[in-house]
Amino acid sequence: PPPSPSPPPPPPSPPPPPPSPPPPSPSPPPPSPPPPPPPPPSPPPAPSPSLPPPPPPPSPPSPVSSCMCLSGPLLTEMKYEQIGKDTDEFMEIAVPCNIPVSELYVHLYNGKNGKNYRTYSVSTDFTKTASIGEFDIYFIELKKKMQNGGKDGDGIAVVRADGVSVTVFEFLSYEGTITASNGPASGMSSFDVGVELKKSPLTTSLVRTGSYPVSDFWKVGTATATSIDPGLVLPC
Q1: 188: Cβ–Cβ under 8 A, 6 or more apart, which residues?
Q2: Among 34, 101, 203, 205, which lies 20 to 30 A Cα-Cα from 43?
Q3: How far apart are CA 179 and CA 187, in angstroms?
């Protein structure tokens, strides 16, 4: 018998389905609305009528000093020598209220060469002992620190130094006139008080008396040390 015919080939497989399209992208959000415009500036306030500024407060009244004294400081008593050893030497000075005591100095001068040999500050070396009128009285004890005068004399200068200028109020001497060769009194000649303490008793000193500055003078009197001579009249 004739061979049986071959079966027909199977039909081709159908093609694979096309890939699914990607899902659509989400739509972008709508743009934000623009910010509202700023409010218009407020109109400037209506000008007010100008007023004068208030007056400044009154200045406080200046302090009024009760000091009316125009005098300078003055030496009122000194003791530079005595019988026996010199153990009781001292000086006393009257300072008016118009002069700062911190600016006052007492300079001792050697009459032999005219040089300043010691200096004392009234505010730190002296002690206030009394007040008379508008003057304060200051005292300093000077054991073996004052020269005894002798044939050449010795001197004392009362000086104010305020940091700007130097003023010599007095340049006195005892047992002779001297001329200062240095220090604040340099070139000045002293005023000799005219009395001296040659071997004087312990109870005496050189004291200023009379009415200063018109008719005052020096004498050998009773040592008061912490108060002026009763006969001395101060100007204020």
Answers
A1: 157, 168, 171, 179, 180
A2: 34
A3: 6
Q: Is 212 exposed, middle or buried (0-12, 13-18, 19+ CB in 10 A)?
A: buried
pLDDT at site 227:
85
How far is C-alpha 230 from the chain's CA centre? 37
Closest listed residue to residue 75, CA positions, set 113, 111, 126: 126
- 3-state secondary structure at position 103: helix
Q: Helices (DSSP H) in 119-180: which residue ranges?
A: 122-125
Residues in the chain: 236
Q: Tell whether the torsion through CA atoms of 170, 171, 173 and 176 is positive or negative.
A: negative
Task: Decide if 228 contacts 216 (C-beta within 8 A).
Answer: no
Q: What is the pLDDT of residues 29-60, one digit of tens each?
A: 667 777 777 777 777 666 665 666 777 776 65
CA distance linking residue 108 with residue 118, whole number of Å = 5
